[in-house]
Design goal:
Strand content: 5-15%
Distance between the termini: 35 Å
Structural class: alpha/beta
Number of helices: 14
Shape: elongated
Helix content: 40-55%
Radius of gyration: 27 Å
């Protein structure tokens, strides 16, 4: 998933005598571009994932360095490389501490390194990795859309993934994502990728069908959940206005089953948005797993209407509150006392209402079979938010 700080270290540790000083939790940050800067003016135009390189010429005081780090963090930079030995020899401890606290990788290269060569080297690597990522995303989309046509994706993905291993799809979305223009959505994509720490080339991140998609290969579920929790935490800190919702699909074996995990992640993401939850795991959703997987939404509406229309009409005429009473009655498995407590209504009044509800529905509501259609109707209703 993109050219990362980790990739850069592996390349630059010997070649450019690069050292990692702080911000270890940003080890997996993706890099979108490399900028040489000696003041902070250009930072406000960052999209996200930019790697900043400086000689320190424009940052003579400790507070200048702190201001630089704060702006890089605010604009979602992937890291900072300082060319030490001419304008700066000792990195301020406050700068190290800030980078550690905010997961902003801080690295150094000695003055003897030719920055132009290093920047060109890393920029080419970023460009080549971006092209590879696009090819991978196209193949994964083919696996989602045409799972039976394995010739369209299996061979392409074999060199990047354990194609017969486990796959799990996560969908990340937020309000207005689909209506954003391409530039704004790309910026948001870059920023979210900075939040996804500790996952690199055993995953792919891309935009598809109104959501950001994260495909993870051979990643333990516990690690994946920690990754998402960390991404949400970092997102809240850096972009407090962003309300990110995440749907987690089931883990499936073999790339040919990727479409199954994707569809389930899509359902989980819809649940997260509808119920205003940050993270919803499909496998934990009980009966909703069936309802959200139904493609014919009209049949769900018909089931809801068939069960509740008579009570709704009665409520419109007499303001009786029978729909809410039935919802509570089913929720509490027929306990009159529990319904009375939830609705702050006398027990005898609830008994009277339930008697009338049975008459209106023509159903005694005594057996599980008699209650089930109405329970499902309320489940369907809750899908509307």
């Amino acid at each position: 998933m993109s050219f990362t700080i980790e990739d850069m270290i592996l390349t630059g540790e010997k070649k450019y005598e690069m050292k990692f000083l702080a911000g270890q939790n940003g080890w997996a940050n993706s890099i979108s571009w490399v900028h040489l800067l000696e003041d902070t003016t250009i930072i406000q135009n960052f999209w996200g994932k930019e790697l900043a390189v400086t000689t320190g010429l424009g940052f003579p005081q400790k507070e200048d360095w702190m201001n630089l780090a704060r702006k890089l963090n605010r604009y979602h930079a992937s890291g900072l490389i300082i060319n030490v030995g001419q304008y700066i020899n000792e990195i301020p401890e406050e700068l190290r501490a800030y980078c550690d606290e905010n997961d902003l990788p801080l690295l150094t290269v000695p003055w003897e390194v030719h920055l132009s060569d290093m920047i060109k080297d890393f920029s080419i690597r970023v460009f080549l990795q971006d092209n590879t990522d696009e090819q991978i995303a196209s193949a994964l989309i083919a696996a989602i859309e045409t799972p039976d046509n394995q010739e369209a994706y299996r061979k392409e993905l074999l060199q990047y993934f354990a194609v017969d291993g486990s796959f799990q799809v996560l969908l990340l979305t937020c309000e207005g994502l689909d209506s954003m223009d391409t530039v704004e959505r790309r910026k948001l994509s870059y920023r979210i990728q900075v939040y996804l720490e500790d996952i690199t080339h055993n995953a792919s991140f891309f935009y598809y069908n109104s959501d950001f998609v994260l495909v993870a290969n051979e990643v333990p579920e516990e690690t994946l959940y920690q990754l998402i929790e960390g991404a949400i935490k970092r997102g809240k800190r850096r972009m407090p206005e962003l309300e990110l919702c995440v749907g987690i699909g089931s883990k499936c074996m073999d790339i040919s089953r990727l479409s199954v995990s994707y569809r389930r992640a899509k359902a989980a993401a819809r649940m997260a948005v509808t119920h205003k939850k940050q993270v919803v795991k499909f496998d934990d959703c009980g009966l909703f797993r069936l309802l959200y997987m139904v493609e014919d939404k009209a049949v769900l509406k018909e089931m809801e209407t068939e069960c509740l229309a008579a009570l709704e009409e009665y409520d419109r005429k007499y303001h009786a509150g029978y729909v809410e009473t039935l919802r509570s009655y089913l929720k509490h498995n027929g306990s009159i006392q529990a319904v009375a407590e939830e609705l702050y209504t006398h027990r005898n009044t609830i008994l009277y209402r339930i008697g009338n509800i049975r008459k209106v529905l023509g159903n005694e509501l005594k057996t599980p079979e008699e209650r089930l259609p109405y329970q499902i109707a309320f489940y369907i209703r809750s899908m509307h938010g």
